[in-house]
Amino acid sequence: MDDKRTLIDVGDGTSDEDDPIIPSKGTGHSSKPKEDAGLVGLNEEPATSSSGGAAQSISGIYHLIDNDQPPLLENNTPSIASEIQTNGNAGSTNRDINNSEPIFHLRSRTAAASTPNYESLDYEVCENTLFQDEQRKRLAEPFSLRKDVIRWIIFIQIGIITALIACSIDIIIEELSELKYEFLIKSVQKNVPLSDASDGDLVIPYLYWLLFSILPVAFGAAMVTYIEPITAGSGIPQVKSYLNGVKIPRIVRIKTLAVKAIGVITSVVGGLAGGKEGPMIHAGAVVAAGISQGKSTTFVKDFRVFKAFRDDHEKRDFVLGGGAAGVSAAFGAPIGGMLFSLEEAASFWNQNLIWRTLVASIISVFTLNIVLSAYHGLNDFTFTGLFNLGKFDQPLKFDYFELPIFMLLGVTGGLLGAAWNSLNTRINKFRKRFIPWKIGKVIEAVVVAIMGVTLACLMIYFINDCRPLGNDPTNHPVQLFCEDNEYNAVAALWFQTPEATVRSLFHDPPGSHKILTLTLFTVVYYVLSCATFGLNVSLGVFIPTALVGAAWGRLLAMVTFYLFPQAEFLHPGKYALIGAAANLGGVLRMTISLSVILMETTGVESSFFFPLIIALISAKWVGDYFNEGIYDTQIQENHVPLLTWEPLPQYKGLTAQKILSSPVVCIKLRDSAHYIYSMLKKCEHNGFPVVDDVQGDRRSEGRVCGIILRSQLIVILLKSLYVENKRFWLPDTSIQTFRDLYPRYPSIKSVRKLDEKINYTVDLSMFMNPSPVRVNPHDSVPRIFQIFRALGLRHLLVINSENRIAGIITRRDFIYK
Amino acid sequence: MDDKRTLIDVGDGTSDEDDPIIPSKGTGHSSKPKEDAGLVGLNEEPATSSSGGAAQSISGIYHLIDNDQPPLLENNTPSIASEIQTNGNAGSTNRDINNSEPIFHLRSRTAAASTPNYESLDYEVCENTLFQDEQRKRLAEPFSLRKDVIRWIIFIQIGIITALIACSIDIIIEELSELKYEFLIKSVQKNVPLSDASDGDLVIPYLYWLLFSILPVAFGAAMVTYIEPITAGSGIPQVKSYLNGVKIPRIVRIKTLAVKAIGVITSVVGGLAGGKEGPMIHAGAVVAAGISQGKSTTFVKDFRVFKAFRDDHEKRDFVLGGGAAGVSAAFGAPIGGMLFSLEEAASFWNQNLIWRTLVASIISVFTLNIVLSAYHGLNDFTFTGLFNLGKFDQPLKFDYFELPIFMLLGVTGGLLGAAWNSLNTRINKFRKRFIPWKIGKVIEAVVVAIMGVTLACLMIYFINDCRPLGNDPTNHPVQLFCEDNEYNAVAALWFQTPEATVRSLFHDPPGSHKILTLTLFTVVYYVLSCATFGLNVSLGVFIPTALVGAAWGRLLAMVTFYLFPQAEFLHPGKYALIGAAANLGGVLRMTISLSVILMETTGVESSFFFPLIIALISAKWVGDYFNEGIYDTQIQENHVPLLTWEPLPQYKGLTAQKILSSPVVCIKLRDSAHYIYSMLKKCEHNGFPVVDDVQGDRRSEGRVCGIILRSQLIVILLKSLYVENKRFWLPDTSIQTFRDLYPRYPSIKSVRKLDEKINYTVDLSMFMNPSPVRVNPHDSVPRIFQIFRALGLRHLLVINSENRIAGIITRRDFIYK
Can you give the pTM of this predicted structure? Predict the structure, then answer.
């Protein structure tokens, strides 16, 4: 055990000055993120050697509180003791069986230093005595039913309000874009009056265009950068992480929603290569969290309703519904919305929850439909504009021999998508490194906006692509450089929002574009979208990805048709759709919900599902060969400890022993307030096993009888729930006492010193969770991973055959690579 | 502990004669169902008193093997011992807190006597040493990938073959029905030649009709009754039970599939009020099980492929895909198919599994599409007949004020559905009681067929509903009793399959029927379908239910329009659709998948989802107030231990202690072959905790170190895997040794006596599952229910704080009411 002690001493060495910066392990407390922004994870530990020290650090993470505490696990079965010993020695025999390389690598110091220390959500319900008391009360009164009814009402509200927000964003963007492009077109017509002369002056429209791009983009970027940086990007990675069980600070606040809404409006109107769909999903999540909690941190307002829903478990369920409602509102795809939430989130398929989610989605679509119908002056609910990407007029047909072509398109999409992801990641890394200043981030966004406008202007100026008017698909044809009765097809592509361009590419009649136009457009947009995603603006990646895909899909069909004019099956709209699917599959890799969303947004027949799926699968598989989806890449870049669906391949063949953290800081069932206080001060863990049958102070040798959370301990200390003054607090204390402070429990620092109560005792039997999930040290990692994920756990206790603690496993233990 | 011992003695009393009929507990072994058909469950125990004895029997189920075994739990903590004591005493103090009535009731003796003793599936993967060895081998070779690829191939095959079977059934039914009704129409035209005379002779067509109904129905009913009774009904309840984790004997055999296919063809052609959809789903399940196992019991053929998939876990996953493919093929609804499987089955949302299921569904729809397109002579894949219930030509519109009407329709559907379920259950109970003979069941089916034909003939004869030809919706208009250029609308309703009638009701132009016609038709069909479901024929309930709903929905619209002729919104097809949704919601209550299936099969716009959902929800909630859905009712009638989604309300507030079974029969880690043999002979349990640290023979006081299944023990005895002859078998023994016998492990009776090896020892450490899930006695039932369901367990061990066994919980413990 010697080298383990050494390692722990090294760890203590870094925190000698009673510094809060103790090397801790993911579960580290950070309910007030700012306070422990300096807190660092395992990563910060002096990396003695990146290969040999890796396995060591795994077992040396949990710090002994008092140095008098004897070495752990003395009385364990020999096999376990020797295993731990093994863990401490690099290049052990056990590991040699599988692999000669070490399994765990430390992340690089630089990456970890700037990483916030994410916490997990407490999805597990703590069924302590207080909880059971409440349950019993509910069984007496018909409260149980009432809670169910309220839950339904909240879900319906989520659907409605999410849709209203989505509508507002949608309408404002549409109106402002209309104004902007109308003005630009007029300006073009004024300054380039000659229909056949190519010497017209495009400079003034160009400057106007620049102005109308720079102003909103700068405004949006500044808001995002200075007010709420978490709103940058689409928000889907953050929502996904939240639903996965990771607490992302400030992700579901109303302020975030406001900034996000304004941010997305300005960015889309500004003409950046992005869509409004991702932010709408984020908006749905915020709405859900806000409504269900009945209070707002931003407005420091507590409406005193829905108090029973104030815990992580309920909140996450509502956010699930909110995300689904957001997708539904964004795409008009209720089933797709439900599946999106499931794909990203649910580990346990709870029928009632899914049913509520589906209803929220449908109500969201319905509300959107009512509002948009009214807005467009229709008096029945047949606003087909809900089909975001345009419904195909006639059923799309295909032949057997096209299936390999679709597969080829899928492969192309996979390759392009993987390249896009890789390029985007590089750009973002570069960005992080060389643009650390806030003002720089705003300027960067403006530069990208200028780049976009300039490239578009150059394309319009140099490409001569005039089409006859008549079956023109645009609302505002620009005559620019064209004959009378003709319009400029290049300008038509650029003078609208990206979403409208996708629609054009899907539905424009054959022969609407030149091959050269589309080629250049594809290349320009590919690069532009890659440069845009990662800017400090609120923008989704779905629409630009679909746009690029639709462009090259249509392009390929046109080129092939040009080469083989007898190939009449090459309907350009169909190939644009397949191309969009392939590109989306290649970039996002969210196969299930994506396919359903595409089916729903384009209203294709169910017989066309098959080509779509072929393209999506090929794209996903090819893309997966090279890298991960863009959302997952972003999550990894942010070092969010996201649980995958399956345990990582490295973990196959390992047992719990190999990944557990030990020794574990334990608390006695009846422990002194002093011990708890000083322990909370000294370490940052969030869950502490409660033990019984303890010899003196050798707590970590006791028998496990439960687990208690840091937040619960802090409430106990704050409210002075001691044994000695039990008669004072007992009547008033209920589970509500703990819920009142949710979700922002105070830090231990805000608990005053206990001078006079220093010797008081805390009896945890009433507060602890008496049924923590426990596994054996020899259980395989895939198995415990399944348990961990299926039950949505935060802490998993590893016990030996005598029910004594052998270690603890948390989310991070499944993630280190 | 005295009364517990008494109870056990009473139990032993019934099995004194070394009879296999030992009172056992659901988990009882019955891998050869015929052999222990006489086996009875807890239900058979002499019900001392239905209220007081209930709690007793819960704790007295597991029998002590040797009478020398001392009373259990001597050295437990006092609280647990006293709790168990409490369990033994009726009307204990603990239960008084919640309720003065006892919580558990014995089922009636009569019901239980005829009930097969269902087993659970072993969904939990037994990660023993052999399994880990295999895993390690796989890590070495690229087998892991190969297994994944093979799994994909199997899922694709499932999709294709299910679709082909569905196609065949579909085409045969269509062709034969066409022949039948064409012949009948000709016969009508021949025998009732006068267009304006009502004195035509309908007797000869009536007799022909009878003949063409009786012959196929009698044939089908005879096949079902004499060859494979499990094929009766739709098969959905059985598939649902299987996916829930209950082993239904013979449910996934090829013989079952053959009988089912022929049964459904004959019944639908015979004109019974039923659909082919349910049987198609069952067919998908059989196909999946058959393909994935690579062997057939019916043909006694082992193809020696896919051996790695021979366990309950893999098989259930494949059956999930098969069910989804079946739904997709039946309805042309791939997403609905996927959701059906999820709604009915999945407890753990495994992304990869869902993805494979979706692909199987889509491939199934695609294959169906190809075949049906080819069959109908179309050369692209736009066979829109895939929309089983007909696609609406124009988007269905609705107004705000119609929403309450839809809700009213939903309530009506709920009431009618609940009444239907209740009536059907009564009819079936009556049937079970008064028609026990096989021939009686066949005759009954024939009688119902005759009844149907007679009622139809009477309606055609007495109702004069002639409509002008021209926009007639039928393929073969019958002129019967009508003027030239007119057709008989009543005959049009009856002279086709029920599915075609649903389509007519949805899509016939307004004014196609008389109010009187539809009223009578609704009443007749309501009664007919109620009498049909439960006959010994293979028929689904989906189509007749939709038909009744469509009929009364259309009827209501017509009546209202008749009363208020200015109400132009009353599109009869729209109301027929809402009526069908409401009636389906009222009868089936499968809300999620049902709504998606309806959306997909009718191709309505997403804006019309909302009315559908309103009707479905209202119907479900109203219906749920009265009784359960028809599938669940059937499952209950058959006493299948299906796990619900939430624990039953009776269990709220209880702890594990209150429902566990104890004492538990345990086995030592190294135990004698003799003990294992005699124990298997004496008791019928399927899982035995493996214990260590045992004082003498006091096995049930040992520390738990694993769990072993009955089937594994039998293999160990059969193959003589003893410690003493280890060197002989060790090299050849792998997890494959155990898989070879799957799924029909021999009974203990087929293991020969061990005379010479009687003192040999079995070391279970290699074979047992070392990581059984364990809970505490004081854990709440809702919590352990969640664990049980989320992890798909079969046995849940309850241990005390010293890791010694306190009891065992199985599926049945969550189900007694």
Answer: 0.81
